[in-house]
Amino acid sequence: MDKRRIRNRNNKLKKEKKFNWSIIIKCTIFLCIIFLASFFSILNIGNSNIINNIYINGISVSSLSREQAKEKLEPLLEDALSKEILIKYDNYETTILPAEIDFSYDIGAALEEAYSIGRTGNILSNNFRILISLFKKTNIEAPIIYDSNKLENIINNISVEIPNLVVEPSYYISNDSLILTKGSAGNYLDKEQVKQSILSGIKEQKDSINLSVAFVEPQSIDINEIHSEIYSEPQNASITQNPYSISAEQQGIDFAISIEEAQNLIDTSDSDQVIIPLTYTDAEITVSDLGEDIFGNIISTCTTKYDSTNTNRVINLQLAADKINGTIINPGETFSFNKIVGERTTKNGFAEAIIYADGELDYGIGGGICQISSTLYNSVLLANLEIVERKNHSMTVTYLPLGHDATVSYGSVDFKFKNNRSYPIKISSTLNSGVITISICGVKEKNEYSVDIVVETTQVDDFETVYEYSSSLAPGTQYIKQTGKYGYKCSTYRVLSQNGKVVSKTLISTDTYKPQKQIVVMAK
């Protein structure tokens, strides 16, 4: 019995001793923490510099004041942004400079974050963070700033320049027929993926970016959707008061066959084109019946010159001009050049004329109609209408300045704009003695702006001279087969003014024009 008591007492003493040691260890750790906290508090009293082992974009800003760190960061980051990045896919190549999208780093925000480390918590957490910094590196990525519209314009240009693009199904109306093109498989570019690749490439200072391009089938044709897009009941012209508003008449339009029959035409046709007959119904009341001339005012106009002796080109210009002439666009509606003009084929009356192809002048069906779309584009800009889709030519054109052109290609590149005015507008398009005149006509609104188009050139690229040899030339002679053109990069702005004062300056596009090589033919 005595032995058991002795054993229990010894066990109790051991537990009390172990408990005491535990308290001593915990107290020691707590005192060490207090000591370190006090030590770092004393050490950092009055310290206005960034703590140790802090980096911004891989650049050390340790122990520097915010002003010193800014002076160190700015030249290093600006130098990194002066680097041109090559963007490529297969044989396609283009370049981009960060300055083209106004890319920059928010150094101020990064410095604030760096300076706040070890200063935002309580005394224990702050000093623990400072202690950790002695052994662990912290890198802060400076937030990026860029112009999303400029980047979007560049990506849109890339998306239509890569070779063998997928052609999606499309349609246009020609007289009493809807001409539907089935489309074809080809390359597709994921624009969001390209955007992230470009931004990452700039931040990581890459020399080049390889585009990820997928080969895809065109979308299937939804005949019900097409029908719903073109179908309309006839609309009588009307006038409303308070507020005053005019609506032009609209013809009713519908398939002349059933949707099932139209689908059967698509399914059984071996041709790339399917023709669906249409039927129209006239409105009972027109604008002229109302005694109103809602298209009596010219809101904007643009003229360009053409060579009236170039017969085939004039044929194409006249056809396109005639097709868009008289088109009425009601408020909120979007105009599509390709849908109005249709496919450029000999069957539709278009002729072969000079076009741009792979940096050289070549011949193609419908050559020249881009002058119509470009002249229209300028008139649309001057009317302060909303641009929905537009792309510049691959090289400069002779009939308009930089940044003023709008190329079109049926099935891939369209020119679209929206009537964002309060009243209907009408396009007036004429050719006369070597001059194209395209006007936007309609009712002038109470709050009209004076519109100017301003272009800022950001880069000029020299052209390459190449030589060809011909045995038909006399020895020692040569001639220039193709004149060289400089390449450019530019930004186009629409400037609105009222009473002589600028109200706004809005970026319309960021355009790249490739140089046109000069070809010299020499005697062999």
Uncertain regions spanning at least 5 consecutive residues = none
Mean pLDDT: 87
Q: What's the tally of helices?
A: 12
C-alpha termini separation? 127 Å
Proportion of residues in extended strands: 25-35%
What does this structure look like?
With 524 residues, the chain is of the alpha+beta class. Helix content is 31%, strand content 31%. It contains twelve helices and 31 strands. Strands 8-9-16-15 form a four-stranded antiparallel sheet. Strands 17-25-24-18 form a four-stranded antiparallel sheet. Strands 2-1-6 form a three-stranded mixed sheet, covered by helices on one side. Strand 24 and strand 25 form a beta hairpin. The model has no long low-confidence stretch (mean pLDDT 87).
Provide the descriptors you would attach to this structure in a database record.
31 strands; 12 helices; four-stranded antiparallel sheet; 524 residues; alpha+beta
Question: In terms of topology, how is this protein built?
Answer:
Elements: H1 2-44, E1 54-56, E2 59-60, H2 66-80, E3 85-89, E4 92-96, E5 104-105, H3 107-116, H4 123-133, E6 138-140, E7 144-145, H5 148-161, E8 170-174, E9 177-181, E10 186-189, H6 191-203, E11 208-210, E12 213-216, H7 223-230, E13 238-240, E14 245-247, E15 252-255, H8 259-268, E16 273-281, H9 287-290, E17 297-305, H10 311-324, E18 328-329, E19 334-336, H11 337-341, E20 352-357, E21 360-365, H12 370-382, E22 386-389, E23 416-418, E24 425-432, E25 435-442, E26 450-461, E27 465-470, E28 478-482, E29 487-498, E30 501-513, E31 518-523
Parallel strand pairs: 1-6, 3-11, 27-31
Antiparallel strand pairs: 1-2, 3-4, 5-7, 8-9, 9-16, 10-12, 13-14, 15-16, 17-25, 18-24, 19-23, 20-21, 22-23, 24-25, 26-29, 28-31, 29-30
